[in-house]
Amino acid sequence: MDLGIAGKWALVGGASKGLGWGCAAALVQEGVNVVMVARGADALNAAAAGLRAQATRPGQQVLAVAADITKPEGREAAFTVAGGPGRDFDIVVTNAGGPPPGDFRSWEREAWIAALDANMLTPIELIKATVDGMAARGFGRIVNITSSAVKAPIDILGLSNGARTGLTGFVAGLSRSGIAAQGVTINNLLPGAFDTDRLKGTMKGAADKTGQPIEAIMDARRKTIPAKRFGNPEEFGAICAFLCSQQAGYITGQNVLADGGAYPGTF
């Protein structure tokens, strides 16, 4: 299926690896020009080079910006990168690493502010900077990578639960405002257990705490998923690319759950 977005410009956060990389890769395969942002320059530049080799359209751009998207200066670097579109992005995929797990009793105000900055206020700032231009041009796709914990909260991920749920409420209102009639959609993409460094880090923490081998911890987690496996970044990216497509223009304000069937509810 031709998604009808070749030649458009996308900004993708956390794009050097994991789910952000999966989204960037899927968009590049659709002929989209992509500005990839991540903090680690070496991993980012290697990822960008790999995706340039997969470009499908003459003159297609894949630009790398080594910056912290959660900081004002990081966002400005993405908007001013040489050869980029400025703030005139057609597609924005917001993505930043989640806050650490723990017990809410140990979190001081600073921990909450950091979580809100990264996982609620940064996406809102990116939306604020780009959404009116999208509306003026008659096309825009914003996809926020959040978490399955928004739908089924996990007790040790309270920082993430709180910040991402705040973003979800904000998006629910904005997506149904006047921009919906101007060709702009905003959706949240909720990953469950995907084979990423973050998952491995969480599993290692559980292994260290229980004294069990990490392989045993990961195998036990797989068995709780009806699909009996972890997801991979490529299939996550394919979902993201579809939400960014011309064909998805009637989907907005939704929380799209990709978790291999792990969520047990009907709705």
Automatic annotation (TrEMBL):
Parts forming coiled coils: none
Spell out the Pfam families in the cross-references: adh_short_C2
Q: Which domain of life is it from?
A: Bacteria
InterPro entries, alphabetically?
NAD(P)-bd_dom_sf (IPR036291), SDR (IPR050259), SDR_fam (IPR002347)
Which SUPFAM superfamilies does this entry report, sorted A to Z?
Answer: NAD(P)-binding Rossmann-fold domains (SSF51735)
| UniProt xrefs under Gene3D superfamilies | NAD(P)-binding Rossmann-like Domain (3.40.50.720)
Q: Which family does it belong to?
A: Belongs to the short-chain dehydrogenases/reductases (SDR) family.
Q: What is this protein called?
A: SDR family oxidoreductase
Q: Which organism's genome codes for this protein?
A: Hydrogenophaga atypica
- Taxonomic lineage of the native organism: Bacteria, Pseudomonadati, Pseudomonadota, Betaproteobacteria, Burkholderiales
